[in-house]
Amino acid sequence: MRKISLREAALDAILIFLGSLLFAFGLDCFEVPNGLAAGGITGLATVFHALALQVGVSLPVGIQSIAMNVLLFAYVVRSGSKRYAILTAAGIIVSGILTDALAPFVPVLGEGDLLLCALWGGVITGIGLGMVFRTGGNTGGTDIIAQLIARKTGASVGSMAILVDGAIVAISAPVFSIENALYAAVAMYICGRVIDTVVDGPRVQRAAYIISEKHERIAQQIMDELDRGCTEFEARGMWSRELRPVIFCVLSRGELAHLKEIVAETDPDAIVVIAEVHEAYGEGFKSIDGR
User: Fold this and answer.
1) pTM of this prediction?
2) 87, 123, 148, 161: most buried, per Cβ within 10 A?
3) How far apart are CA 44 and CA 141, in angstroms?
4) Count of CB atoms situated within 10 Å of the CB of 252
5) Neighbours of 111 (CB within 10 A)
């Protein structure tokens, strides 16, 4: 396990607390009191909470979440990462405690407006979960399963969470209503997209593939004017069967216009393909182990 500095440990603790606080706020203000079981263990706990209230019993959502996560925590331990297990345990406990601790004090917002509740509930809980996910842990529940699947398949955590949580949204329909379930699905989708944005960051890098007979001159201008490195690939045209070099470089979105000017001035007939890059690490970009 990589040695963690005191600064990194403190940052992880702050992210887990603030993320759990936002997550609890979104649940207590928008989702739980308005009958939106937007997936996850907390969604299942919301369903049980509503069923218990019908018979005069109080089942706090946070305590339920902690109890149910004890069973799933075995998967975290088996992952072999002590740090992951510690961070996830912290996320489970802190988010569960804060969910129940905030409930009596925060206002219930958006009563009667399920769309408003779904939108803001999804955004706020998504930001909170994303902050916790950035530490490398999570708040437990189906998020554990989602992260394990994402690690094995390379799919995004948010997309996997949507698939895993869909069944819980469907279960909530008979307890609340079909309309509530549909809006819960909206909240779940928004939450998943926000998680991806917070965890992965804005997609600001672009990859450029340039095919030109004047490739050397274009590459030199990119290195001189944009201060970006270039890589040359050897490609073969399927029609002509001729070998042609392909220049590959990764640059920021703001540098894209300058790149187009360079190519247009040097070789207007060049073939240029621009692709969006999910993340870029290394010299000129953020560090691979940076936060």
Assistant:
1) 0.73
2) 161
3) 10
4) 15
5) 12
Rounded Cα distance between 38 and 27, Å, is 9
- Among candidate residues 148, 129, 13, the one with its CA nearest the CA of residue 65: 129
CA distances from 113 to 18, 50, 193, 276, 284 (A): 27, 19, 22, 37, 47
At 54, which amino acid appears?
A: Q
10 Å CB burial of residue 126 (0-12, 13-18, 19+) is: buried
Strand, coil or helix: 249 = strand
Per-residue pLDDT of the chain (291 residues; tens, 9 = 90+): 456 678 888 888 999 999 999 999 999 999 999 999 988 888 899 999 999 998 888 899 999 999 888 877 776 666 556 777 788 888 889 999 999 999 999 999 888 899 999 999 999 999 999 998 888 777 777 766 666 676 677 666 667 767 777 888 888 999 999 999 999 999 988 988 898 888 777 666 789 999 988 989 999 988 888 888 888 988 887 887 788 889 999 887 778 888 888 998 899 989 999 988 877 777 666 666 654
Task: Give the C-alpha separation, 80 to 267, whole Å.
Answer: 53
How many other CB atoms sit within 10 Å of the CB of residue 282? 10
- What six digits make up the tokens of 231? 């890589």
Residue with tokens 């190519």, as numbered in its chain: 263
State how far the Cα of 112 lies from the Cα of 114, in Å rounded to an integer: 6
